[in-house]
Amino acid sequence: MTLSKELLEIIVCPKCKSELIYEEDKQRLICQKCSVYYPIREDIPILLIEEAIPIEKETKL
């Protein structure tokens, strides 16, 4: 299942309030300004600052 267009238009990064980029295939929302992503679990975006994962951490895995 994918996130609705309406939801994607209104959600922003909880830390800096920037627009988020939806990566449907990886089930995550990316904030380019903060260089983090927020996971999507069971079709629910986890938009908690403490749940943000640094993008560079992914490349080290």
TrEMBL record:
<comment type="similarity">
    <text>Belongs to the UPF0434 family.</text>
</comment>
<dbReference type="Pfam" id="PF03966">
    <property type="entry name" value="Trm112p"/>
</dbReference>
<dbReference type="GO" id="GO:0005829">
    <property type="term" value="C:cytosol"/>
</dbReference>
<protein>
    <recommendedName>
        <fullName>UPF0434 protein TAGGR_1668</fullName>
    </recommendedName>
</protein>
<dbReference type="InterPro" id="IPR005651">
    <property type="entry name" value="Trm112-like"/>
</dbReference>
